[in-house]
Design goal:
The protein is mostly helical. The protein has one domain. The longest helix has 39 residues.
């Protein structure tokens, strides 16, 4: 387990817990709600990626400069790595066919752990693959606009502002995923306190 998930677990374990009694129907409802939520999230995610790739194809049809093709290529490679990481770490998984209380609890425990770990390491497998394409684009555009390396043209100021916005957006995404990881950890800890009547 990574240090991020260890610290999240330590935070939630420091809070007082109590035993919760549940029946099979309540556990089934909890698992069904969890499944529906994550299936809906995955549909939105994959639709967004579909739109992204349509935009990439549209952009490639009008590009003739090797730098633009290179930037788009690096971005597509980063997107493929991010999609694969998402599918492997956080993608929708079906519940076992045998839906006894024990199987449901085990399934929820596995899925909550997987979702927590995926959210806690989101920056590494989802955002980082885009870094080469973004850096390549910014370096090329910086060198194209200005007679010296340190000259601040209007285009370079716009590049700096765009870079700051991208970093702020990325930081907000990472913060949101850390909050999601903490929520998954809390749900996991609640699940560990369940006792059968």
């Amino acid at each position: 387990m990574s240090s991020d998930t260890q610290s999240l677990k330590a935070l939630w374990q420091s809070l007082p817990s109590q035993k919760v009694v549940f029946n099979h129907r309540q556990m089934q409802q909890r698992a069904d709600k969890f499944q529906a939520k994550h299936k809906r999230r995955d549909i939105i995610e994959y639709l967004a990626w579909g739109v992204f790739f349509l935009l990439v194809i549209y952009m490639l049809t009008g590009q003739s400069y090797w730098t633009d093709v290179m930037w788009v290529g690096l971005t597509v490679i980063g997107a493929i790595i991010a999609i694969w990481g998402y599918y492997r770490r956080m993608g929708y998984k079906t519940m076992p066919s045998s839906n006894s209380a024990d199987n449901l609890v085990d399934f929820m425990r596995r899925e909550l752990t997987r979702q927590r770990d995926g959210a806690a390491t989101y920056w590494r497998w989802y955002l980082l693959p885009f870094a080469p394409g973004i850096l390549f684009l910014f370096v090329v555009r910086w060198l194209e606009n200005g007679s010296t390396l340190m000259e601040l043209t209007e285009m370079r100021i716009a590049l700096i502002m765009a870079f700051v916005l991208i970093m702020a957006f990325s930081a907000a995404c990472v913060l949101w995923q850390f909050l999601c990881a903490a929520r998954y950890q809390r749900q996991l800890d609640e699940l560990e306190t369940y006792t059968r009547p």
